[in-house]
Structure formats: structure tokens, C-alpha cells
Amino acid sequence: MNLSFSAGGAFGIVADILLLAVGLVLIIKGGDIFVDAAVAVARSLGVPEIIVGATVVSIGTTLPEIITSTASVVKGMAAGDAALTAGYNSLAVGNAVGSMMCNAGLILGIAILARPPRAGKGFSPKGLFLLATTALLAVFSLSGGAISIAEGIVLLVLFVVFTGLNVYEASRPGTLSPALVGRDSGAALRRGIKGKDIAFFILGAAAIAFGAILLIDNAQSLCLEAGIPQQLIGITVVAVGTSLPELATALTSLKKGASDIGLGNVIGANVINATLILGLITCITGSALEIDAITKNVAVWVSLAITAALVLPSLLTGKTYRAQGLIMLALYLGFILYNALAVVV
Predict the structure, then answer these.
(1) Burial category of 170 from C-beta neighbours within 10 Å (exposed 0-12, middle 13-18, buried 19 and up)
(2) Cα(168)–Cα(231) distance, integer angstroms
(3) How far apart are CA 340 and CA 336, in angstroms?
(4) Do residues 272 and 121 make contact, with C-beta atoms less than 8 angstroms apart?
(5) CB-based burial of residue 209 (10 Å sphere; 0-12 exposed, 13-18 middle, 19+ buried)?
(6) How far apart are CA 190 and CA 202, in angstroms?
(7) Contact 110, 329 (CB under 8 A)
(8) 184-242, pLDDT tens digit by residue?
(9) Cross-strand partners of 319
(10) I need a labelling partner for 126 at 20 to 30 A (CA). Which of 55, 159, 244, 262 fits?
(11) CB 186: neighbour CB atoms within 10 A?
(12) 59: CB partners within 8 A, 6+ apart
């Protein structure tokens, strides 16, 4: 199935952009509906809200990246053409790595400049986990022009470890609010799951899937129509678009004076991008996942530098500083400029 509008010329480019935008809207709105419904179902089953937050919600904010990257490699496998397959893979990898840079460099960089959040309890282990994972991804990029199946499995194992640590931390005595301690999950289950929650769960998932197909098809079509490399579209337009939930969380947190929530969300989202998404799409392909030269030689390392600028100073002081936000934002914008110039030249 191809949901791009192949008309050629300027009209075709405009149509691709419009349909790409529709895909983004469906992904973002579908993600909101999906997460709300998933939380409602979990509550009906008696699952503590804090566990839901550590698992369903954190994964829910990265659903756009998960579905988009997965749909891209699946379409690449079905393309039957080596060049098209490489293009779809570039979109998928560019989306994951680009989202990591966008989340930390652009979104969190601006948030820290506006109101530096605390790097309080829980920041050190999660920040170190993100830094180590990003460094490992950089090491993998040195081993060749691809992520191997074995490396993909390692990334998936790291995701399982990260999720397990979150659940363990959320489940420790004293972590649950008094309202949740001793909750009778059996009684909750007897009350039943509302049909509308199931309906919205399915509707949200369908909107994300359909939006991802629209996004990928029209991003690919736009690249062909305008002669733009898939890597550039994936690491900019698609990455920024699928990072909108993290942007919304950061802006809401700033407005409510709780910018540390946005900090935690970005750390979790970036770990998921580096482990679950890249590990999953590598295993789906059934072979090594090729990485384009700019992503391998530049983007991964810029992502590591942004992460180091975020994590290392805050580990020592327990705070974040506007200088960190400025450095992170400058690294991100510098990479985007470099990438654009490399394509033009």
C-alpha cells in the first residue's frame, strides 16, 4: 500500500508536504488517544499509576518514533529495490537518531535556557544509563557501516533492563502514594473495563499506524520529487515531527513550573530511541541495518556530545545550568546546518 500522491512537479511536492503533515497530525493525536486509553485500562485492572507512568506513558510518548521507524524498514523490505530499501532504512535510522538530538538538543536545550530544571533524585542512574547507551551506539557505528543483528539484540536487552529498573524503582516501598497502597485490583477488575476505553485504544493505535504510513510514503515521495536525500528528511522533518509529544510535555512542564518532568521524559524517550527502536528495526530486517555516512560519522557523535553536555555537569552538582542548554542547542543547530550544507555541496 502506498499513500503518497505521485503527480510530479511542484503540485506533487505540495501534495506530498500536505499529506506528510496529515500523517504527523494523525500520529500525534493518535498517540494522545492511545496513551490516555492505555492508562484508563491499566487503572481498571488495578495497575498502580506510577507503574503505568514508568512503562506505558514513557513508551507512549515515543510511539510516533517507534511506529514510524518500524513502518519505514518494513516498507523498505517490501520495496524489492536496493536503492529504495536503503532510502527507507535511512529514514528509519535518521528518525531515531534525529529524535534523540531533537529531544535533547532542541527541546531540552530550550527548556533549560528558559528555566533550568533540577537534576534531583533518580537523575544520576537514568542519566548515566542514557550516556552509556549513547556511547555504546557510537562504538557500534565504528564497527562498520551497519548495526549487526547481535548489536541489535544487545540494544533490546538494554531496553528490557531499563524498563525493569524503572518498574523496580516505582514499586519500592514508600514510592506509591497512600491512595495506591493496598489497592484492591480484584475489585477494580470486577468493575470492568469500559468499552469506550477499548475503542479509543484501538482508534489511537489505528491513527498512529495510518499516520506513520502517510508520513513515510510522502517523506519518501518528497525526497524523490525534490531530489532531497532521505537521511536529511529523516533526521530533520520526520525526527522533529515525531518528537512533538516530548515538545508538548516540555512546554506543559515549563508552564506549570515543573520542568524536571520534561527532563525525565526526554531521558526516557532517548533511551527508548537508542535501545528499543534501533534494536527492534535491526532485528526486523533480519540482517545488518545499514547506517548512512553522515549519521554514522557525525550525527551519532553529536548526539553523544549533547548527552554528555546534559549529564556530566549535572552529575557533579545536582543542577542544570543555562550554559548547558546553550551548548546543547548550539550543537544541535550546528549539526543541522552542517547536514544541510553537506547535502547542497
Answers:
(1) middle
(2) 38
(3) 6
(4) no
(5) middle
(6) 22
(7) yes
(8) 444 444 455 678 888 887 888 788 777 777 877 777 677 767 777 777 777 777 777 77
(9) 118
(10) 244
(11) 9
(12) 66, 272, 276
What nine digits make up the cell of 265? Answer: 521524559
Orientation of helix 9-44 relative to helix 244-255, angle to 10°: 60
The residue type at 126: K
pLDDT at residue number 32: 75
What's the predicted TM-score (pTM) here? 0.78
CB 62 within 8 A of CB 170: no
Cell numbers at 203, concatenated: 482508534
The pLDDT, as a whole number, for residue 180 is 35
For the residues 136-150, what does the mean pLDDT come to?
Answer: 88
Give dist(CA 59, CA 31) in Å, integer.
10
Using the structure block, give the residue that is written with the C-alpha cell 514508568: 54
CA–CA separation, 150 vs 284, rounded Å?
Answer: 13
Amino acid symbol at 170: A
Cα dist. 250→51, 214, 300 in Å? Answer: 21, 26, 23
Write a three-state SS string for 181-240. Answer: CCCCHHHHHHHCCCHHHHHHHHHHHHHHHHHHHHHHHHHHHHHHHHCCCHHHHHHHHHHH
- H-run or E-run covering 172: none
Residues with Cβ within 8 Å of residue 309, at least 6 apart in sequence: 324, 327, 328, 331
Count of positions (residues) in the chain? 345
Q: What average pLDDT does this structure show over 7-28?
A: 77
Q: Give the model's pLDDT for residue 14.
A: 82
* Tally of CB atoms within 10 A around 19: 20
User: How far separated are the first and last CA of the chain, in Å rounded?
Assistant: 35
**What is the distance between the alpha carbons of residues 310 and 345, in angstroms, rounded to a whole number?**
32
